[in-house]
Amino acid sequence: MTEITSEAQLRELLGEPLPRVAAKDRKTLHEYDRQWLASSPLCLVATSGADGSCDVSPKGDPPGFTLVLDDTTIAIPERPGNRRADGFRNILANPHVGLIYLVPGRGDTLRINGTARLVSDAPFFDQMRVKGHRPLLALVVEIKQVFYHCSKAFLRSDLWQPATWNPTAVPSRARLAQRLEQPDVALEDLDRYYGPAYATRLYETG
User: Fold this and answer.
1) 10 in a domain, yes or no?
2) Sequence-ordered list of residues with C-beta below 8 angstroms from that of 180, at least 6 positions apart, any chain
3) Which stretches within 118-186 are classed as H helix?
4) CA atoms lying within 13 Å on the CB side of residue 180
């Protein structure tokens, strides 16, 4: 492998960004950003711990789940999950986060970088109720940088083209769990757990 070890080598290979690309990031939300957040049901949250270890965690809810508090602040609700809290533990040590917001069918994405804090309760929690459930906590992000990312990765991957989808190309969630996580649990039981009833428990704790 020929390793790149300096920014000069990187720039020699990739070239310099166009001026309009280098200067496209902003520090505050535009009305179009608010519309995007109101339409997005999924966000990827990237964090890094004090030791440099990284994590990316998906956060999803009905479109508009991210609450805009003001032009430089947003809040992301947390729902019941596996309790690993990898990203949240990272934030306690290093508040810097990177977010990517997706809108189904769109190749471009909204990117937000900033600093985050964990909030266990606030008046706005009632605005983030889903099916009667308030969030367990919220990730409040102070925006330092916001911009749109082009569609090339989505176009190259054909991500939104149903003809390319093949969910059975890899083992089912139940088979993955049985082989890698819960070898002592019968596959039939895991199939039942991850079956249709799984979606009915998305907002339940415990």
Assistant:
1) no
2) none
3) 152-157, 173-180
4) 7
Domain identity same for 180 and 111: no
- Is 44 within a domain? yes
Containing 191, the helix (H) or strand (E) segment is: helix 187-193
Task: Return the H-helix or E-strand segment holding 138.
Answer: strand 137-149
* Mean pLDDT, the chain, integer: 96
- At 36-58, the pLDDT tens digits run 999 999 999 999 999 999 999 99
Q: In which domain, by residue range, is 194 found? A: 166-201
Residues 6+ apart with CB under 8 A from 69: 75, 124, 140
Q: What is the mean pLDDT of residues 13-17?
A: 95
Q: Do 131 and 196 have their domain in common?
A: no
pLDDT category at 206 given cuts 50, 70, 90 is low
Beta-sheet strands, E only, within 36-82: 42-48, 54-60, 67-70, 73-78
Query: 3-state DSSP call for residue 143?
Result: strand
84 and 186 belong to one structural domain: no
Q: With respect to residue 84, please indicate whether it lies within any of the assigned structural domains.
A: yes
Q: Is the pTM of this model over 0.90?
A: yes
The 10s digit of each residue's pLDDT in 128-144 is 999 999 999 999 999 99
